Amino acid sequence: MTVGEKIKTFRNIRGISQNMLGELAGIDGTTIRKYELGSRNPKPDQLLKIANALGVSINVFTDFDIETASDVFTLLFKMDEQIDMEIDGEKDKDGNLIPDTIYIRFKHPEINSRLAKFAKAKKLQENLIASKDAFPSEEAFQHEVEQINETCEQIKQHLVDTNKVVKKGTSGIAIKVYSENTP
Q1: Taking Cα atoms as reference points, which of 38, 40, 37, 7 lies closest to residue 24?
Q2: Separation between Cα atoms, residue 42 and residue 173, nearest integer Å
Q3: Taking a C-beta distance cutoff of 8 angstroms, is the pair 21, 49 a contact?
Q4: Please, what is the average pLDDT of the chain?
Q5: Which H or E run contains 155?
Q6: Contact 181, 23 (CB under 8 A)
Q7: Which of 28, 53, 71, 134 is most buried, by CB atoms within 10 Å?
Q8: Tens digits of residue pLDDT in 27-70
């Protein structure tokens, strides 16, 4: 999904027009339209204004390429520094974690609730793929795969749509971001 498509998705979730988003972000509405169409890409400062106007983290517009174990561990270590999480699993007779049983658990109900919804969507995808033989044709199967993938993408966008603070040592804090034009 492109940055422009993500902007459009969150704008539609908010139920606001391109002009309204432009007004909230301090950007011309026609520029928002160009971003959404992909004819222009927002500069970082413009993207930050849009994210603030939509009330989402700028990170929802960023694509991460995770290709190596180092990439994974960098993200895990950063999460461990900033949020309450636990890494655990079954232990062998010497008390060492058994690698195939390791799991990560978050100690924040907001994260866990949203993660449970994501897990459910992933399970629906897996079940669909496992039932490929039940479809009358490859075309019908591919159509269903496209629909479930689109649905899962929408679910993911809704799940990241929160300003609830989950940093270690915080509890029950939510932030509201106002545009520069709001008194």
Answers
A1: 7
A2: 30
A3: no
A4: 86
A5: helix 138-159
A6: yes
A7: 53
A8: 999 999 999 999 999 999 999 999 989 888 888 888 777 889 99
Which single residue is written with the structure tokens 């195939």? 100
Burial status of residue 167 (CB atoms within 10 A of its CB: 0-12, 13-18, 19 or more) = exposed
pLDDT tens per residue, range 76-106: 998 888 888 999 999 999 999 999 999 998 8
Non-local (6+) Cβ contacts of 138 within 8 A are none
Q: Hunting for tokens 């079940």 — which residue is that?
A: 127
Q: Residue 69 has which token pair?
A: 């174990």
Q: Which of 48, 45, 54 is nearest to 17 (CA)?
A: 54
Smallest CA-to-CA distance from 162 within 108, 107, 110, 85 is with 110
Residue type present at position 92: D
Count CB-CB contacts under 10 A for residue 183: 3
